[in-house]
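TICKET: design request
STATUS: open
ATTACHED STRUCTURE:
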């Protein structure tokens, strides 16, 4: 058993560093953007690619597909890495292998967009396939663009997002407290880790939401999956990736697993106090009910 785990760990640690490019434009070349004379593939002054010609259908298609499939910075490549080694991947990204992966800021919007445009992909309140054709007929494209933002603030999603964003201070503070040492992330790095975790979660959600297509039992499978995701997969992904990314030993990891949820809970209540009493705004009802300390005390 430990042998198998060791083998999996070895596979997870195989780096996939991008080899240097062949020099495509060898002779001195003038940058079309900033007029700098240079040799090589990219302008040393402004970073624009050498050999930029007129826009053509062919390179338009290649550029668009490249967003998803290209090995460098490709979303698909990044998602695959996130699926089987989230912690290792985040460590690589934080350590400076930026050219290898899609930025989490981009990735999270890409996955959100996929969630919005695919039927059956958002939360329970999403469009049913039988409504799908009438929706397309009845609403213009702008509706679907607006939906991308509405989707973010649907009841379930809001709880997710509030929780998700608060994981940033939770990871950051807990790493400080357990003294993760030189691998300890700063606040911005914690935020990037969190966006990768959210991207992975939303991607998984997109996949298992498709079980709703199965006639009869589809929704039952979905509801079971939803609970498994929330209470098993999500905590596992968070703890596993943090453990791998911060290279914590098991003692620190146990402390982390106890402290992080407590700090998350604390952050939530601090935020609640701020929103409720400083901004004088009401939070969504579901958040009140589920996780609010004051709500419970008042009851
Ligand atoms: Zn230039």
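STATUS: resolved
RESOLUTION: sequence designed for all positions
ATTACHED SEQUENCE:
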């Amino acid at each position: 058993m430990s042998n198998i785990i060791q083998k999996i760990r070895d596979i997870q640690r195989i780096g996939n560093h991008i080899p240097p490019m062949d020099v495509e434009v060898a002779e001195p070349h003038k940058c079309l953007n900033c007029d700098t004379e240079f040799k090589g593939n990219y302008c040393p002054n402004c970073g624009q690619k050498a050999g930029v010609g007129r826009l053509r259908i062919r390179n338009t298609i290649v550029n668009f597909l490249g967003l998803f499939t290209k090995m460098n910075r490709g979303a698909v490549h990044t998602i695959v890495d996130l699926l089987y080694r989230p912690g290792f991947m985040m460590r690589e990204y934080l350590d400076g292998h930026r050219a290898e992966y899609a930025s989490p800021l981009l990735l999270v919007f890409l996955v959100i967009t996929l969630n919005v445009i695919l039927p059956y992909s958002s939360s329970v309140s999403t469009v049913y396939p039988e409504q799908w054709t009438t929706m397309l007929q009845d609403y213009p494209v702008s509706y679907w663009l607006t939906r991308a933002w509405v989707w973010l603030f649907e009841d379930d999603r809001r709880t997710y997002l509030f929780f998700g964003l608060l994981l940033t201070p939770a990871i950051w503070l807990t790493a400080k407290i357990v003294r993760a040492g030189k691998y300890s992330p700063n606040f911005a790095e914690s935020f990037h880790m969190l966006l990768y975790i959210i991207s992975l979660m939303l991607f998984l959600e997109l996949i298992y939401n498709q079980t709703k297509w199965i006639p009869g039992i589809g929704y039952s499978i979905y509801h079971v999956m939803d609970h498994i995701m929330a209470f098993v997969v999500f905590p596992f992904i968070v703890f596993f990736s943090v453990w791998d990314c911060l290279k914590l030993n098991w003692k620190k990891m146990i402390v982390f697993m106890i402290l992080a949820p407590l700090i998350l809970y604390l952050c939530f209540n601090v935020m609640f106090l701020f929103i409720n009493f400083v901004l004088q705004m009401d939070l969504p009802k579901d958040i009140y009910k589920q996780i609010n300390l004051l709500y419970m005390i008042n009851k």
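CLOSING REMARK: The first helix runs from residue 2 to 12. The pocket of zinc ion is lined by residues 31, 33-34, 36, 43, 45-46, 48 (CB under 6 Å).
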